[in-house]
Amino acid sequence: MERNQHSVRTPLNSVVERRSKSKSYRLSYRSGLGAASRPCFTPGLTARRLDTSRKAPKSRDITEKMTKEQLTLLVQTEWQLSYVTPLYRFRHTQLKSYSRQLSAFIAAEKQQGLAVDVEGTDNTFRVSFSLVQGMTESVDDAETVLIQIHRKSLFASQNEPLKPVWSGWLTCINVNPGYLQSLTKDFICLPLFCSSGAGALTTLVQSWFQQSFDCCFGPLEISHMSLQWLIALWINCNPESSIRQLKMIWTLPVEPPLKVTYTVNSEDAWELWRTVRKEDRAGEEEEDSIDIEEVTSFMQGLKGHFFRHFRLDLSAGCLNEVSTALGSAKHTGMIKISNSKYLITTLTLLTECAILKMPI
Amino acid sequence: MAAKSNLSGSPDADLSSLSDRSLSSRASNRSLRVAEKERRKNDAEDPFVLALKYFSNVEAGTPVHGNDEVEKNLVLVERAAYSKGLSPEAISVMLEFAMSLRMGSGICPRVLKCLIPATVVPQEAVVRAVAWLGVANIPVNTQILFIKWLLTVFDLIDAKDQLRAIYGFIFNFTSEENLCPFICHLLYLLTRKESVRVFRVRKLLELQSKLGRQPFLLNLLSLYKVFCPELVTLSIPSQLKSVFRNHNLPWKSALTVVQRRNSPQVASSLNLFSTSKHKTTSRKRKHHHLGLAMLSSAVNKEPQTETSRQLVPLVQLHSVAQLLENMHRIELPAQMGSLLGSSLGLHYLDCVQDESALLRLNFWLGYTLQEELLFSSDEGSSQSSEESMQFLDKLLSTQHFLQEGFSSSEAFLYKFLSVWDGSVLRPQILGLLSNIPVVPSSQIGQLLFEPLMQLFFTSSLFFKCGLMESLNNMLLKWLTWHSVYALEDDLDISLNSHTSINMTLSGFKDSVMELVDFVGRLASVGLQLEGCHSLLLNFILDFYTTVCDMFLKYGLPLVVVPPPGVFYPALFATDPVSVDRLAFIMHRYKVNLTSAKSQEKLTKQAFRISRQTFKEFNNYAVFMVNCLWNAKLIQPGMSIQLGEELLLKSNVPEYWKSFDLIYHPAFMSYAVDFHQKCWPGRKDMDLDSIKHSKPWNWYLEYLFNQGYDGLKLFIQSNTSRQLTAGDGQGNSLSTE
Fold it and tell me: Where is the composition biased (Low complexity) (chain B) (predicted)?
């Protein structure tokens, strides 16, 4: 009876709060749908979506801060994308020691399953971690980390340079600050992982990261929508640096499967882009931005044109690959960014995609 | 005298016990023999055993081509091999068959490829096979395949002494150029100090001069050098490594599958520590996510913590006592996912307030669920669903242990529900569903109700029942949460605001209200769809048993009565249990409402239960009393109205009586039984005679004695039993 009385006294709208110590901890189990202080902890909610409007890419010279080797590596390689959950206790100050640890880890894993290794414990793989200066946009972004693996060939002479066999980098550009707030300070958020090189080494690097920083790696596909965004972002740069031509590969779900390669001249594409751009931005001082409507109407224009000629509606199909002179991207998560000026813009979009794929 | 009899008595006793023993041993012998006979008989009928018999007895020179029998038997053996692996006897039979080339060399590789040992490989079989290598005319490729197989299963050979005894014999094969690399690898595994001889070293050096500095020769030589440095003067390059590759390709995947299947099933209950083996993730296995990581301590330790105190890794603790002793200096594992299998770890996690640790656990869990169940492309393979099931079971038992769900599993569930077909992993998913914490009423529809509604209306009766049960458990958990935390409002221990949940009482009430309404809608339509199936009705009544007591049991000032779509089907149900349960629920509603009312009067302020609720309840109660007690089906002013003409049209005589306690389909059989017991002599049955006041009271007594307590409570609280049947009036609650 006591209890009932008590609960009756609970005034309407009183805050049902967990007060005791053990309770405060337990809260983090719950999704905190009701917890106002953790906005991004709204798991599975549709709240997290790709932005519907983004800044038009501005050509930015990031070359001055980056070393030349780093830049050429980033720009001239086709990368396989993955998403990474936040790294626990990753320290940018300890890259040297990480290099050592990862080298040792790879050596140990490589030796597994072999008959007794008699001699020659010498490492054939050399790992180096390095910071990529200047690869940040907002103040919250963690600095980009580049990992390279070189291999000493067995019969190489002393002076011969090491052969690079694998490289990868973790980055985070313009991440949603709300997401960062939901993490504790022990975590470093570098959600985008790009790798290039032997798959076995990628797996090794990932499992080392997994064991050292308690994070998880998953494949990051570039969705239909993101590919369209990339087209728009690249087209928008045409006046500054020509895209040469826009090439798209579609697949249509018919039997047998139909693959359509659709190539558009840069001038034609720009002409079409200009017509779909909203011109009612009068008096707008803020930066030029692109809306999702513009992107979809641009794509509609392209599809309509195709339909007039071939009587084939591309809306039924799926956009699989996009390439221009500024870069190329595939649905499977391969991307190549050919022009360093637009690196940041592209990576902002990809960071967003990676955050979108986070489990919580 | 006594002593003597004792003395004489004891040998007798001994004797008898002896004979007992021999008897029993004879009996057990017999039973053993019987069992053996039985086994043989079973074996004789087992097609697999017959197939093995075929291969051990088949005559040399039997043709393979066009021979259906060999094909059939080989398929049998292959199937057994790839599913369970082959027993040692089967391995020796098949190996002997293959290497003796009894049916030619064509079939040999196929047999070799299916030699997947279930447990061990008998050494004798291997030795015989090696002997065949020297005798029979086996093609080189098949010879290589055999050696590769031998290298793959090397660790599974039960003993190696006889193999070492024929070291010299094996060594001779090094002169075969094609075999040499593999023979060297085998020798490398077999070599001991006494096998290193001058003539062998010489032979190897000779080979080296012929074949060049081949890594396999160098490797074997380097091993020789380790054992007998004086015999090998050659200098071995220091960078020599990774030359003996693994040749296990044809068998590797099958072997891992068989071994995993044969390893004892992971107990679903939590062990003190996770026994799951640490697997290298470097192997390209599709489903490596579901394995738990090993509890291992962190590599990158924070320097300051190391200096300040000695940390104890969780993996070193083995009992709760140890845990308590080291509570202040426990180091969490490097990968939090490993805690899922360790109850000690969970105990610890439950006590400390380490938000980072929880986040890590949640990230890992969310990632695993998402990659394995949401995005996994190869659906339908039984192997993976078996693994998923075990994983989810483990997750569920962890959640039960903590009595709380994880936010990541909740997030996963919201996504999964929209793509779920309602049958894959049903018990597990429904279990996770019932662990979902309170969802704000603004989001509950989109997140839960929409996908669940679609699933509910398109699934089988059993899914409907399962979902009802799961939603009932969910409600129970919410209410328990409320009753624990709402009452602690007065405790004021301050804590950081970072994690506090801000859910107002009215917000909580809204959520519960939404849930109860939702279940009411599902139940009404579900009962119609399934023709008021009594199983479904039972699960629905379970839910309302929880709902009717929300105020008294859980202190939540909210009363929601069931919708007509649930009330009437339950009242008119053909099984007495459902009616009885409805009566109990109505009784509890009455108790709750009465108590709420009296408290409202007592404390003045506080909540109000809407008049509408009282009205609805009263309508139901009056209808129920009228129906069961007064034999009046319709009364003016009731919530449901039936046209008099319509009822007359049904041609049921005295239709108004059809649902009283005598004629109600659920109780009719009791009435008949009672009638026979009461008036055993009577030929013609007149059930109406039970209505007379004395037999009526007896009849009620009789019914209540059948265990219908709900009915008893309902009738006792809603009618005055002293009155005769005809005058009984429902004394309903007033709305004032």
Answer: 7-32
Of B239, B281, B282, Cβ closest to residue A154: B239
Structure tokens at B642: 């039936």
Nearest-CA distance B562 → chain A (Å): 23
For tokens 């709760």, what's the residue?
Answer: B320
CA distances for A63 relative to A69, A134, A336, B523, angstroms: 11, 8, 17, 65
pLDDT at B107 over 90: no
Do residue A119 and residue B222 have CB atoms under 8 angstroms apart? yes
Q: Has this prediction a pTM greater than 0.90?
A: no
B505–A22 CB contact, under 8 Å: no
- A36 reaches B (C-beta below 8 A): yes
Interface contact flag, A115 B556, Cβ < 8 Å: no
CA angle B307, B313, B316 (to 5 degrees): 135
Residues across chain A: 360
> Which is more confidently placed, B199 or B6?
B199
Tell me what pLDDT residue A345 has.
86
Mean pLDDT rounded to a whole number for chain A: 79
What tokens appear for A78 in the block? 């086709």
Residues of B in contact with A25 (CB under 8 A): 350, 352-355, 358, 499
What is the token pair recorded at B514? 């939404």
Bigger pLDDT: B501 vs B234: B234
Across the interface, do B447 and A187 touch by the CB < 8 Å criterion? Answer: no
Q: Does residue B264 or residue B236 have the better pLDDT?
A: B236
For residue B587, what pLDDT band results from cuts at 50, 70 and 90?
very high
| Closest-CA distance of chain B to residue A198, Å | 12
- Between CA A270 and CA A279 the distance in angstroms is 15
Q: What is the identity of the amino acid at B642?
A: L
Model confidence band, residue A98 (pLDDT cutoffs 50, 70, 90): very high
* CA–CA separation, B134 and B138 (whole Å): 9
Collect all residues with Cβ–Cβ distance below 8 Å to B114 and sequence separation of at least 6.
B77, B78, B81, B82, B86, B94
Alpha helices in A64-161, H assignment, sequence order: 68-76, 95-111
Name the least confident of B1-15, B111-125, B212-226: B1-15
Structure token pair of residue A299: 């794509």
Residues of A in contact with B284 (CB under 8 A): 199-200, 203
Q: Are A32 and A41 in contact (CB under 8 A)?
A: yes
Which H or E run includes B129? Answer: helix B123-135
For residue A7, give the nearest of B226, B404, B487 by CB distance: B487
Picking from A30, A187, A216, the nearest residue to B407 by CB comes out as A30
User: Count of CB atoms within 10 A of residue A62's CB?
Assistant: 18
Inter-chain CB proximity B507 and A3 less than 8 Å: no
Verify whether the Cβ–Cβ distance B411 to A43 is below 8 Å: yes
Q: Which of B256, B407, B511 to mutate to test the interface with A (most CBs of A within 10 A)?
A: B407
Q: What letter represents residue B199's amino acid?
A: F
Mean pLDDT across the stretch B419-432? Answer: 91
Query: Mean pLDDT, to the nearest integer, of A52-65?
Result: 71
Dig out the tokens for B126 from the structure.
């291997």
pLDDT digits 0-9 by tens, A221-263? 999 999 999 999 999 888 888 888 999 999 998 888 889 999 9
Of A4, A12, A17, the CB nearest to B506: A12
B356 and A88: CB-CB below 8 Å?
yes
Q: Are strands B330-331 and B312-313 parallel, antiparallel or unpaired?
A: parallel
Residues with Cβ within 8 Å of B4's Cβ and at least 6 positions away in sequence, in order, are none
Residue A297: the pLDDT is 93
Grouping H, G, I as helix, E, B as strand and the rest as coil, residue B377 is coil
Rg of chain A in Å (alpha carbons): 25
pLDDT band at residue B298 under the 50/70/90 scheme: low
| A310 in contact with B, Cβ within 8 Å | no
